[in-house]
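ingest -> fold -> write
write: protein_1
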Amino acid sequence: MLEKFQPTPPDPILGLGQLFKADPRDNKIDLGVGVFKDAAGNTPIMSAVKKAEVILHDSQTTKTYKGLAGDEAFRDEMRKLVLGDAVAADRVATLQTPGGTGALRQLYEAIKKVNGDATLWLSDPTWPSHVAMGKAMGMNIRTYRYFDQATSMVNFDAMMEDIKGIQPQDVLMLHGCCHNPTGANLNADQWSVITDLLLQKNAIPFIDIAYQGFGDGLDEDAANLRAMAARVPEMLIAASCSKNFGLYRDRVGCAMAICDSAEKHDVVSRNLAVLNRMNYSFAPDHGAALVAIILGDEVLNAEWQRELTEMRDTMLTIRQELADALRLKCNTDRFDFIAEHRGMFSRLGLTKEEVDRLRDEHGMYVVGDSRINIAGLSGGRVEPFATAVAAVLGG
């Protein structure tokens, strides 16, 4: 049986990381994998997380199973973090999942269960797993134009032209903030126009919010999602704690389904819990318990928000410094958009050949589509990277 497996191509981002590790050069810079890095190039554990772990260690008396839907305190705190008071709590069914990826998977499963003929509309480009997971599950996938290569901003007219073809009960996925891989985000007016269309077409919004707090602030990054949620009868949401809590390896996520009435909440909740049973039964609890402790404790919550603000400010500073350095060294304003983008990523608009030269000639490891992890340039790495880009573009 197993001999029927065929060789698979290496993951482009993880493969890039392996090449980076094997590179003996001291001046190499890794801008691939999307993890926050401090000035020393490390991905630290947040102090609020460490303190929560002590509390959990001292207070936890059992490792028995939680409910199928996961830790209720965690799920309630995540609902408040993402949605605020935009939607009544009794309309929101929640499910604890292994990371934001697990939330996406379970919500994909929910779509297939209730409407297997629905088309899932995804931005072009988007996070590759959005497409790969959907195709592997046999979902109907369509893409809509999103990113203007010429301006490095959202091509909203093209997007609206494409999604006008959306059908009733189709599902439109949007990035809640900090679009991956481009860093280019829709503005509030554009979200409102999209909401109008979804209401007109009787289609369902599906929001992937993996970077809340990495753009302009916790509430600011969720503002457009909340405004849409307050207007639509139903919405699906996949939320992740990997980035904003630094809980990458602990796999902490939450799936949410906004129902059109409180009466449907219990039925939807039970069906989501069954999806957990059919997949992995119980989501891992450790990281979720830490999030619940932090969000539920006034002092720890404040400490966590201070740390998150420092991380966000670091990336915003790097964005401005990189835009300025590239303007000076390349004698062009083509990279000014970097300062306008938000979140961990931006796509530079370099060719594959130029990306290869950055790696081979200068030790700058960039994903093939020229997406860079902005946080990878902390600690004085902006200047050498800008110099390398200028060298590649100049010759």
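write: protein_2
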Amino acid sequence: MSEAIGNILDLVGNTPLIELKSVTAHLKNVKIYAKAEYMNPSGSVKDRAARAMILHGIKSKAFTKDKILIDATSGNTGISYAMMCAHLGYKAAICVPKNANLERKRLLKAFGAQIIETDPLLSSDGAVGVAKEIALSEPEKYFYPNQYANEENPKAHYNSTGIEIWRQSGKKVTHFVAGAGTAGTFTGTSSRLKEFNKNIKTILMQPDSPFHALEGMKHLASSPIKGFHDESLVDEVVEVNSEEAHETALRLARDEGLFVGFSSGGNVSAALKVAQKAQAGSVIVTILCDNGFRYLTDDLWEKR
């Protein structure tokens, strides 16, 4: 009998790096690899930051069994929090925009989290305000990790994601492409990769307008809450519209067998644009943020 895993949190990280073959068939001498973050235990990249923030809170005694974790999310971080709190025997209350999709809300409920719906017109920024207000009003009741300002968020990616990409690519990665919500993934990963090789290009994928359909991604130019966004780490910004991100997600499912969400489609769309200009021999790495099961009610999947 193989050695058992004693803790769900031990399953976070060390996700595969997958070479994209079909969607890149038109490229010559340029490779694109995707970090399969949807294979984390709750199904998204946010498991890395959530684990780090929860464990830091417990270690510092800021998060105790008599407190409720409260934070704002567009969905994925909240699901990570809810799963980990359920596993560890803690409680969670998640502030989420009212228009967050049905799958995310059902997952939060499945893990036993309390859902606090916020103004849909204010998106995730509005949820941040509500979470902060509740936490400040009853500090003895709530543990507020605040994923937009908690240094454990980018540190999780600095200490894991960046190192894994460097190792798994055989130290050959030349470009890193990713979008930003809290910017923890982009900032933490980019800063570590540039320490390994200062010539690695770190490229920000951004929705092409404030009104888009890439859940979890921000149009940073118009957002008042920029999280860990560090302009000095951005070598280039590549804009992607919602339609091309959705179409790429569908192509990934149909042509690569990778069932991932729309933010993943946006990242791969941006990586493909970067590849068209990249030098021969370039190795481009991007992030598959979450799985497609969180988008099943979208009629995209029924397209012919």
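write: annotation protein_2
The CA atoms of residues 95 and 116 lie 5 Å apart.
The longest helix spans residues 152-168.
pipeline exit 0
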